[in-house]
Amino acid sequence: MSTHTTAVTVPGQCPEVTRYLPWTDPQFRIDPYPYYARALAEAPIMRDDFDGSFVLTRYEDLMHYGRLPSVRIAPEWEKAGAWRVLLDMALGHDEPGHTRLRRQTSKWFTPKRVREWAETAARFTDRLLDDLGPDGLVDGSDLAVEVTHRTVCHILDVPADNHDEVRRLMRQAMPILSARPTPRDFELAEEALDELRRRTAALIEAKRANPGEGLLDALLGAQGRGEMSAAEVLATALFFYVVGHMDATYLISSGLHLFTRRPDLFDAFRANPDRHEAFVAELARYDAPEPVVTRATTEDLVIHGVHVPAGRSLRLMLGAANHDPAVFDNPDEFDFTRPPEQTRNLTFSFGSHGCQGRLLAEAEIRVVFERIAARYSRVELAGEPDIRNTDASRHYFTLPLRLHR
């Protein structure tokens, strides 16, 4: 039995999670950070009586328990409804399968390759900005998803003319990952993932008939050498094709929305090109697009004096940990001048399951902001944004903007 010695609760106490994090409350879904702050201060571990899971909020706890060899990811994907398809790619595997599958794609996301993909994203951004009318009206979320989806499709070497439909299907598929999915959520997710699997399978067949030099070609080459199965190729291609735009799209939208509320931050971004990477890192810390990941225990644990049996789910609250005052000074303030030791956000997960596309996402976010900053002096709202979140994922459906020269 593993233990952790920084207990601050009375041994054995474990409050029910919805006393602190009311998963379905509209206000919580809009702005969870005041709720996170209370949980961080009073309840670093909570139980969910709905499904028997345990919830952790503190940065130190996520870094410790989330990386234990006995805390694993695969069992959680087995329970994830239509998202079980990810059991056949790196994200669904623990070691040693995780490293085997991740190795097939890692060379496509090295710093050198990401610099190349950033140039691609910049070209797509410039084309879209070139097409804006003199009034500067644009939907920031549409701009974000088109740039990021086209960039991922360029990497895969597949057509990229259906980003709106891919986004619609992903919005339909995501709610089952929340803490309180409904039966209808599962039905809609099955419909969406069936269609996305069909589209991905068609891309694979088209690629077999018309080979190229993209990531999908590399995956098919690995299958031909016996290094990947057909199911692993499908799941890996599906993941990059349909998920590759999501986090970057949200953070681009969130950052543009922040610029409308804080013009001083847009001025600071324009005036400090050497701080652009720090700005993006702070944005990721400040507003995590997927504020929770789940893992499963395979042995008994004692966390802050609470017995957590083997076979239970752990919900690791990345969004809360990113605002932990034990790590980040004034955590609810956006401060891109933080010292390096306060930029260690968990938005793109951590440990061996850290997001392989993190460097790409950060580059895409930076590039979109830079191309807008090069042309425009101000970003304003042109209408009320449509933001629809669950406890597990955050989404801009619309973000009407006016860009001023």
Task: Outline the biggest β-sheet.
Answer: 5 strands, mixed
Radius of gyration, Cα only, in angstroms? Answer: 21 Å
The stretches of 5 or more residues where confidence is low (pLDDT under 50) are 1-11
Anisotropy-based shape? globular
> Structural class of the secondary structure composition?
alpha+beta
Widest sheet: strand order?
2-3-9-6-4
The N- to C-terminal Cα distance equals 62 Å
Helix content: 40-55%
**How many E strands?**
13
Give the topology string: H per helix, E per strand: EHHEEHEHHHEHHHHHHHHEEEEHHEEEE
Average per-residue pLDDT, rounded, comes to: 92
With helices defined by DSSP (H or I, 4 residues minimum), what is the helix count? 16
Strand percent estimate: 5-15%
Task: Name the features.
405 residues, alpha+beta, three-stranded mixed beta sheet, 13 strands, 48% helix, disordered N terminus
Describe the structure.
- It is a single chain.
- Helix 9 (183-209) packs across helix 11, helix 12 (246-261) packs parallel to helix 16 and helix 14 (276-286) crosses helix 16.
- The relative contact order is 0.18.
- This protein is an alpha+beta fold and 405 residues long.
- The model is unreliable at 1-11 (pLDDT under 50).
- The strands form 4 sheets. It has a 5-stranded mixed β-sheet.
- Helix content is 48%, strand content 11%.
- The protein has helices spanning 26-30, 33-42, 59-65, 74-78, 97-106, 111-130, 140-156, 163-173, 183-209, 215-224, 230-243, 246-261, 263-271, 276-286, 318-321, 358-375, and strands spanning 2-3, 45-48, 53-56, 71-72, 137-139, 293-297, 301-303, 306-308, 313-316, 378-381, 386-387, 396-398, 400-404.
- It is built from 16 helices and 13 strands.
